[in-house]
Specification:
With 59 residues, this protein is mostly helical. It has helices at 2-10, 13-20, 23-35, 41-58. The protein is flat and about 40 Å long.
Amino acid sequence: MTLILFALQTGNVGMVALLSSTTPIMVLPLLWIYTKQRPNKYAWLGAVFAVIGTSILVS
C-alpha cells in the first residue's frame, strides 16, 4: 500500500490504479507456494482475463 501511495504521488493516477488492481493476480502463485494447495481453476481463468484486459487498456 505504501508503494501505491508513493506511485500516486509521483505517477499517472490511471496507470497506478490499473496496475494496482492486478495485485491479487500476482498473489496466486505465492498462495500456491505458501499453502501447497493449487488455487481453483476459476481463479486462474479470472487472472488470465484480468491480464488480457489490462494489456488491452495499456496498449
